[in-house]
Design a protein that fits this description.
Layout: E1 5-8, E2 19-25, E3 30-35, E4 40-45, E5 51-55, E6 62-65, E7 71-74, E8 78-83, E9 88-94, E10 100-107, E11 113-119, E12 127-132, E13 138-145, E14 148-154, E15 159-164, E16 171-179, E17 182-191, E18 198-204, E19 210-215, E20 219-223, E21 229-234, E22 240-246, E23 252-257, E24 267-271
Antiparallel strand pairs: 1-24, 2-3, 3-4, 4-5, 6-7, 7-8, 8-9, 10-11, 11-12, 12-13, 14-15, 15-16, 16-17, 18-19, 19-20, 20-21, 22-23, 23-24
Length: 288
């Protein structure tokens, strides 16, 4: 059991309805994140927790950073670059399937952006995984998912992780990377149905261990590269959604969450310095 020191950040006012997708700006000491159902984009200080917020015209699924540091937001109708000075959005590519939106995303160590889409009503089997090409088109990678999450790319083992959060599925898979935007046959990495909490957003640490938010389970689950459950990190929120590492040695984590009454909807900060945990920095999308 990993037992980090925990503190809660200052939540937006009002608190996010469904906080997701922490994207850490290590240089600025800040983290960008979204509120899906509340249609919001937030920027919070990693130490202060103080948050600035902007409303969005559509439901966002994720935010990542471009090479310039500019936040890139995946929403219902496309992928957008956000200008925090003017509050304006510039569309970079279209998401043309009506009733769908972007959901999860990860940037691999080469700067390639991998994304998922899903039906807004979570229609069974309507979700998919895509790779964003250099010419800003969506290359299909995997289909038949419902709530595709858990995305991470292991550079050493050359594989993509992804999950399906639907209560009837609750499975994490890996697939080997065989080319730009191409994967091999997927294999089950872990079945979370017997565990508390469903698999949501994820990240890899420096030792190749896979960390995933157990939404409904008030914890983070930690797996070995072979899929063996190693540890559980208890959290003070019931519905954690995704995590990101930060700090000089990436010994800290920031976790987003869904609001549950008076709890959740803000950020949870964890210090794992005494646990000898070392994470990995998120790579920025090199296309922009």
């Amino acid at each position: 059991m990993i037992t980090p020191a925990i503190r809660l950040g200052t939540a937006p006012d009002p608190a996010a309805e469904l906080g997701e997708s922490p994207a850490v700006d290590h240089d600025a000491g800040e983290v960008w994140w979204v509120d899906i159902t509340g249609r919001g984009l937030h920027r919070s200080g990693l130490e202060s927790g103080v948050t600035a917020s902007w409303g969005l015209p559509e439901e966002p699924g994720f935010v990542v950073q471009a090479a310039s540091g500019q936040p890139i937001v995946g929403m219902e109708t496309g992928l957008f670059a956000f200008d925090p000075h003017s509050g304006s959005l510039k569309k970079l590519l279209d998401q043309t399937r009506f009733g769908h939106r972007f959901n999860d995303a990860t940037v691999d160590s080469t700067g390639v952006l991998w994304v998922s889409t899903m039906a807004r009503d979570a229609a069974r089997g309507a979700g998919a995984i895509w790779c964003v090409s250099d010419d800003l088109t969506l290359l299909p990678v995997a289909a038949g998912l419902t709530i595709p999450n858990g995305m991470a790319v292991d550079r050493i083992r050359r594989r993509l992780y992804y999950s399906d959060s639907h209560p009837d599925v609750q499975t994490i898979w890996t697939a080997s990377l065989v080319g730009h935007g191409e994967i091999g046959k997927s294999a089950v990495f872990a079945d979370m149905k017997p565990m508390s909490g469903r698999p949501d957003g994820a990240a890899l640490d420096a030792d190749g261990r896979y960390w995933i938010a157990a939404v409904d389970g008030a914890a983070l689950k930690v797996f070995s590269p072979d899929g063996e459950p190693l540890s559980e990190v208890a959290l003070p929120v019931t519905f954690p959604t995704k995590l990101a590492f930060y700090g000089e040695h990436c010994e800290n984590l920031v976790v987003t969450s869904k609001r549950d009454g008076e709890h959740g909807g803000g950020l949870t900060f964890l210090s794992c310095a005494k646990e000898n945990v070392r994470g990995t920095r998120q790579t920025r999308w090199s296309r922009q």
